[in-house]
Write a structure and sequence with these properties.
The chain is α/β, with parallel strands linked by helices. It is built from 16 helices and 23 strands. Helix 10 crosses helix 11. The structure holds nicotinamide-adenine-dinucleotide.
Length: 541
């Protein structure tokens, strides 16, 4: 116990490195990529202080080179899952009693390790096994992850300083306790930073965690665990179990000490987990916290006053960066007829200029989609579009999975604002355009608002200020992250807290104090200095 009210370092966003030709960072990341490509890793389960390599292993392959093996990861049995929960619970008291400055220090150290000695490794792993180009890996695995860890320390410190007022003769304190149990973190493939943050955010607030990463993010998950270990996160605070998601979740969610779910992934899985929690409610010691950030069908709405180069760039980057595999990726575009042809021509020109292939070749803007299931799903929608009368394929529409899961960026145009690709989350490089009559902009905003079940991100591109205000009002609940004259993706921690409502999630805004508040259970402590000694009140005399 150290005496003092300590302050924490002021968080600033990690600068994004450029990886220009001949830069030292480019050389280092490519060397690390090669080293990882040519070695084989065997990833254990992390249960308390044990690293367990199971007999049953699953293969890890780069999506852009699926016949190559990077190694394998361990598949947990039911008893491993129970052991992971037990390890977390046996660490709970000690971690809960660890003072904030020490909890903060390990995660600040993790951030510095990511930004420094582990930068090339975590970026190269994300390029290799999640098929991100170097820029997409850098903004995710290095910068966003370090930002989450650093900003969360600041937000936690701000939360702890929020205290009740004092009354006469009493002292009031609000203690921000961690939850009484363990937090179960279930994470998606598409962001290394989200995977790390979903464990680290509850742990920073004093919670213990059982983490089930995505099968398609295991390669960088191992590096996250290496970093946490080197940073000094005590064993048992974050326990990793990989394998059958249903089996692992069934056990975690049936445990009486399950205290919270920190989920990012698809809407369908989240709804299923929520339902399961509801069914198990009477077995829990506490009402669990449920935080889930899920799917999206994100829009760009252009007004006739839009600056055309801004709009073309927003559609190109917003729709196709990381092969459209961002929950925030633009996938339905509304263009006014007066500028539609010019905008479409500009987007087609950009798409035709994309180079596609392995992320190791830094000329490539587009690489593969994550797995065969995703490839097959995208092919299904593309082939259906070729048959349907109310939609045409403007560019793309080709694909090849012989070496990697490559889907050529595809632009569709429909005259049906409810065409399936205007409503369904595809999670790939397929963008659909709907052209409206300029004078119908108000009713088309109504369409934007009601077409999809989601409410994650959206953008309006316009110079007309009256329109911008009207759109912001009309689309108030259509997007949790609303962008004006920008693409709807690329949220930066601390600057644009991220999340959406409707079917897109609980909107607890990852990378903000709002999220951290879900991982505490405040205790109010009132101390009376000179307590009453007579039950009678003065009015009774
Ligand atoms: P996913 O739903 O397939 O998987 C997410 C996690 O759930 C994985 O760990 C997976 O193994 C697990 N899972 C799968 N089936 C399960 C089951 N039956 N029981 C318990 N767990 C199960 O999602 P994904 O393909 O990894 O990621 C893409 C999805 O995530 C998209 O829908 C995207 O919009 C969403 N996403 C949302 C955000 C956001 O902030 N809103 C961010 C990133 C991704």
């Amino acid at each position: 116990m150290e005496n003092g009210f300590f302050s924490v370092p002021k968080a600033v966003n990690e600068p994004v490195l450029t990886y220009l030709k001949n830069s030292p960072e480019r050389k280092e990341v490519l060397e690390t990529y090669k080293e990882l490509y040519h070695s084989k890793v065997t990833i254990p389960l992390y249960i308390g202080s044990e690293k367990i390599i199971t007999k049953k292993q699953a293969n890890i392959a780069p999506p852009h080179d699926h016949q190559h093996t990077l190694g394998s990861y361990s598949l947990a049995s039911e008893s491993h899952v129970r052991d992971a929960i037990a390890a977390a619970l046996s660490t709970r008291k000690a971690w809960e009693n660890t003072s904030f400055e020490h909890r903060a220090a390990v995660f600040l150290k993790a951030a510095d390790l990511i930004a420094g000695p582990y930068r090339a490794r975590i970026n190269a792993a994300t390029m290799l096994a999640q098929s991100k180009n170097i820029f997409q890996a850098e903004i995710d695995a290095a910068c966003e992850f370090a930002d989450f860890l650093r900003f969360n320390v600041t937000f936690a410190s701000d939360i702890y300083t929020q205290q009740p007022i004092q009354g006469s003769g009493v002292v009031n304190r609000l203690e921000y306790r961690p939850l009484e149990g363990f937090v179960y973190a279930v994470t998606p493939f598409n962001f290394t930073a989200i995977a790390g943050n979903l464990c680290a955010a509850p742990a920073l607030m004093g919670n213990v965690v059982v983490w089930k990463p995505s099968d398609y993010q295991m390669f960088s998950a191992k590096i996250i665990m290496d970093i946490f270990e080197e940073a000094g996160v005590p064993t048992g605070v974050i326990n990793l179990v990989s394998g059958d998601p249903k089996m692992i979740s069934d056990i975690a969610l049936a445990h009486p000490n399950f205290a919270g779910l920190h989920f990012t992934g698809s809407t369908e899985i989240f709804k299923h987990l929520w339902q399961q929690i509801g069914n198990n409610l009477s077995t829990y010691q506490n009402y669990p916290r449920i935080v889930g950030e899920t799917g999206g069908k994100d829009f760009i709405f252009a007004h006739q006053s839009a600056a055309i180069p801004t709009l073309i760039t927003a559609i190109t980057r917003g729709g196709f960066e990381y092969q459209g595999q961002k929950c925030s990726a633009a996938s339905r575009i509304y263009l006014p007829a007066s500028i539609a042809d010019e905008v479409i021509a500009g987007v087609i020109k950009n798409i035709k200029s994309f180079s596609i292939g392995t992320p190791e070749d830094m000329n490539n803007f587009i690489t593969a989609v994550i797995h065969e299931k995703s490839f097959d799903k995208l092919v299904h929608f593309i082939e259906q579009a070729k048959l349907d009368e109310d939609v045409e394929v403007l560019v793309g529409g080709t694909y090849d999975k012989s070496k990697g899961y490559f889907v050529h960026p595809t632009l569709l145009k429909t005259n049906n604002p409810h065409y399936t690709t205007m409503e369904t989350e595809l999670f790939g490089p397929v963008v659909t355009v709907y052209v409206y009559d300029d004078k119908d902009w108000e009713s088309t905003l109504g369409l934007v608002n009601t077409t999809s079940v989601y409410g994650l991100t959206g953008a309006v591109i316009a110079q007309d200020r009256m329109f911008i205000e009207a759109a912001a009002n009309r689309l108030r609940h259509a997007a949790g992250n609303f962008y004006i004259n920008d693409k709807p993706s690329g949220a930066v921690v601390g600057q644009q807290p991220f999340g959406g409502s409707r079917a897109s999630g609980t909107n607890d805004k990852a990378g903000s104090a709002l999220n951290l508040l879900r991982w505490v259970s405040p205790r109010l402590i009132k101390e009376t200095l000179v307590p009453a000694t007579d039950y009678r009140y003065p009015y009774m005399d």
